[in-house]
Amino acid sequence: MTTLGIAITGSGGSTPNTRLDNDTLSQIVETSDEWISTRTGIRQRRLASPEMSLSELAAAAAQEALEMAGLSPSEVDLVVLATSTPDDLFGSASRVQHRIGAPQAVAFDLTAACSGFVFGLVTVAQFLRTGVYRNAVLIGADILSRWVDWSDRRTCVLFGDGAGAVVLQRTSPEDDGLLGFELRSNGAQNGCLTLDYSHRSHALVENLEVSQGNYSRIAMNGQEIYKFAVKKVPEAIEKALFRANLTNEDLDWLLLHQANQRILDAVAKRLNVPSEKVISNLARYGNTSAASIPLALDEAVRSHQIQTGDTIAASGFGAGLTWGAAIVKWGGAA
Ligand code: ACO
User: Fold this and answer.
1) Tens of pLDDT along 214-249?
2) What residues in the chain have per-residue pLDDT under 50?
3) Smallest Cα–Cα separation from 139: which of 159, 119, 156?
4) Which of 31, 60, 204, 222 has a CA that sits 20 to 30 A from residue 332's CA?
5) Minimum CA distance residue for ligand 1 atom 47
6) What is the pLDDT of residue 207?
7) Is 200 a domain residue?
8) pLDDT at position 268, please?
9) Is residue 201 part of a domain?
10) What is the pLDDT of residue 194?
11) What is the pLDDT of residue 2?
12) Of 175, 200, 232, which marks where a domain is finished?
């Protein structure tokens, strides 16, 4: 089987206009700007209006990425939407495909919580490397404000809404921009972070019941997730670097899931990556789940921090538990 390469040729981001700062949050739960900013680094987050759809947010990010790549939507073969908060449990990727005007593309959702973007990147790369598809759009998008328990100060201060996207295009093996990766899951710790189905029995006829339910709210053991992230993320990045035949000194940027500034700092310290190479925008957006990595990537590209040819270690981690790392080169020709 042929093994081709992938190039990341465009990025985009989209966030709702409404901002919720820490002071306003302290009117909702017993907290303070001081507690939130020192423990997490978050100062504000964006919130989707009740009318806004996940597909709308995701499509806006995808359109920006396509424009940057100079690619017409009609040329897109594959749309992958990494999300845990679809508009429709059957999936929202095809709504995004329709919104961006990519009728030729096959579209599907991928769920891996805050690791969704990295898992999606590796998934899309398989289709491109085997030569099956030429052009793909990968979107990470989440509206967690719809699923947060707004009376739980341990979780509601952390999350925000947003979408980020990249265009991935097939390229020659020599120009491959995915240098190495590592993906992991551990269901034994699933209970540490959940958005569970909530069971309610419904009798159809005598002695025959089915469950009719809903999803409850995000529940998290913050300390366990913190310990998990600080240990497992550096390990995954080191494995991915090893496969790429690189060391941490070869990295231009560390682009982690934007969950907590303390996690970013601790991972960078373990990997011996200086703080000026750590991309961080969580002060302004909080944890936007699957959107956080592509959103931060897009900002860093548009502000000319990240330049063509730069080597980036991207790592997502979260519910599942899932975690993963990908060593990628930004830019390049399709
Ligand atoms: N405001 C004020 N006080 C608070 C708040 C708040 N918002 N939240 C918790 N506290 C209190 C607690 O009640 C506790 O008080 P107590 O000692 O009187 O009981 C105290 O602060 C310390 O609580 P801890 O939970 O020990 O605080 P910690 O320093 O661990 O920080 C945090 C909590 C920020 C959640 C941290 O554990 C963390 O970031 N964990 C990782 C979470 C994460 O990244 N999750 C996302 C994964 S991504 C995904 O897949 C969705």
Assistant:
1) 999 999 999 999 999 999 999 999 999 999 999 999
2) none
3) 119
4) 60
5) 318
6) 95
7) no
8) 98
9) no
10) 97
11) 57
12) 175
Q: What 3-state class would DSSP assign to 229? A: helix
Instruction: Tell me the whole-structure pTM to 2 decimals.
Output: 0.96
Q: How many Å lie between the centroid of ligand 1 and the Cα of residue 219?
A: 12
Nearest-atom index, ligand 1, CA of 225: 41
**Residue-number span of the structural domain to which 82 is assigned:** 5-175
Question: Does 252 share its domain with 307?
Answer: yes
List ligand 1's pocket residues with C-beta within 6 A.
31, 35-36, 39-40, 113-114, 153-154, 157, 193, 220, 222-223, 225-226, 229, 259-260, 287, 289, 318-319
Q: What is the pLDDT of residues 83-108, one digit of tens each?
A: 999 999 999 999 999 999 999 999 99
Identify whether 21 is part of a domain.
yes
Backbone angles phi, psi at 328, to 5 degrees: -130, 155
Atom of ligand 1 nearest to the CA of 156: 7
Q: How far apart are CA 155 and CA 206, in angstroms?
A: 41
- pLDDT value at position 1? 55
Which residue's alpha carbon is nearest to atom 29 within ligand 1?
A: 39
Which of 175, 207, 242 terminates a domain? The answer is: 175
Rounded to 5 degrees, what are φ and ψ at 211?
Answer: -100, 130
Task: Name the residues annotated as catalytic.
Answer: 114, 257, 287
Ligand 1 centroid to residue 223 C-alpha, Å = 7
Q: Please state the domain count of the chain.
A: 2
Distance CA 287, CA 60 (A): 19
Q: Is residue 270 included in any domain, yes or no?
A: yes
CB atoms within 10 A of CB 17: 9
**Co-location of 135 and 263 in the same domain:** no
Q: What is the pLDDT of residue 300?
A: 98
Does residue 184 sit in the same domain as residue 134?
A: no
Q: Please give the helix or strand (H or E) that residue 7 lies within, else none.
A: strand 5-14
